[in-house]
């Protein structure tokens, strides 16, 4: 009886300390973030600035293009374009300080199949993701929509042991987030989390400068007239200045639309002063973080 009482006492004393130690170790380890975009530019555009901040803090970020972008140009297509866009994404990722992967699925042909759900599940598990970011599943582009559907479909399956049993399941469900958009139906994007990218904006621009096929040449909607309106390839500084003119209003608009979230997370003074932002909405699938966990996962807001 005394031995049992002593064991109970030891458990009562030691268990809280062990749990506290485990929580501290978990909080101290680098975070693993995986961002899914439909094409080799989407993840970079939507989360590149936040990815830089995570990478600077020692966390691991992977940007995944679910299609190879092989019809995303007005003048070229097929294998040569897929190879070009894969190289562009890799060059961008190197500047951002993150990893890049482009899946070999044809641009414009993505469908929410079981095979693709398994691929997404394996990628999330293989990255041991704490955070998963993707498009919302309603969008003008079918590839964007189906990336959202596939990631949502994986949100539960990543912890199910006998789904894709060749890849160990996650022990804890990640936080799943949507990247921002301007679409209104069935409901508009809501900025649950907004991150100031004032300090990473220049590095983001340096990275997306490498995605030349998409902005300097206009991608699928480009033309000879568009190319003629952009500084030539030899004028690197002129091109970068042109790119800044395109992106400053875009990121300022994101900050203005998510101002309430910025003030809530940074405090009134800092939140009102943010010039450029990226914003995310918490998916109702996956883990639902409270304010303390949001601040752990996004360690940029301060106390």
Describe this protein with a few key phrases.
303 residues, alpha/beta, Rossmann fold, 7-stranded mixed sheet, 12 helices, 50% helix, globular
Describe the fold and architecture.
The chain is α/β, with parallel strands linked by helices and 303 residues long. It has a single domain, classed as Rossmann fold (3-Layer(aba) Sandwich). It contains twelve helices and seven strands. It has helices at residues 2-28, 42-56, 78-96, 114-126, 142-157, 201-208, 212-215, 224-229, 236-257, 259-266, 268-273, 291-297, and strands at 32-37, 60-65, 99-102, 131-134, 175-179, 193-196, 277-286. Helix 2 (42-56) packs across helix 6 (201-208) and helix 3 packs antiparallel against helix 6. The longest helix is centred in the first third of the chain and has 27 residues, at 2-28. The termini are far apart.
Summarize the structure.
The chain has one domain (30-297): Rossmann fold (3-Layer(aba) Sandwich), CATH 3.40.50.10320. It has 12 helices and 7 strands.
CATH homologous superfamily annotation: LmbE-like
In DSSP terms (H or I, runs of 4 or more residues), the helix count works out at 12
Name the CATH architecture.
3-Layer(aba) Sandwich
Helical/strand content category: alpha/beta
Strand order of the largest sheet: 3-2-1-4-5-7-6
Strand residue percentage: 5-15%
Please give the number of β-strands.
Answer: 7
CATH topology name, in short, is Rossmann fold
Assign the CATH class.
Answer: Alpha Beta
Q: What can be said about the biggest beta sheet?
A: 7 strands, mixed
Strand and helix order: HEHEHEHEHEEHHHHHHEH
The overall number of domains is: 1
Helix content: 40-55%
Task: Pick out the low-confidence regions.
Answer: 17-25
Mean pLDDT: 93
Distance between the termini: 48 Å
Based on CA inertia axes, which overall geometry fits? globular
Rg over alpha carbons: 21 Å
